[in-house]
């Protein structure tokens, strides 16, 4: 699990390799990632936008931006949390994701919270010793 806290908002991510949806012989690898966003602060916030940077094992980068997450823009009051699961495919057996959520505070101001970088690892990646 990977966790990062920004402005009293914690984001925890757990990536899961999906063997049953992957076809290594066709260079198709799929992961789910479970995200939990917890408001540990004293102000109500709403998740407005997401940003992801996905990098495969060859260094190819893809950026994804959009409103909300999984079709929602959850409101988190102090002490509340929101969980969702999404996924991403890659053409390599490993990669890394990192991102940010744009939050809106009660006064209408916006701020970004970091999503921790997390690795996408499959059992099909070659093991290398340093």
Automatic annotation (TrEMBL):
Coiled coil: none
Pfam families: DUF525
GO BP annotations listed: error-free translesion synthesis
Domain ApaG intervals: 3-127
InterPro entries linked to this entry: ApaG_domain, ApaG_sf, Uncharacterised_ApaG
Top-level division of the source organism's lineage: Bacteria
The protein's name in its UniProt record: Protein ApaG
Species classification: Bacteria, Pseudomonadati, Pseudomonadota, Alphaproteobacteria, Rhodospirillales
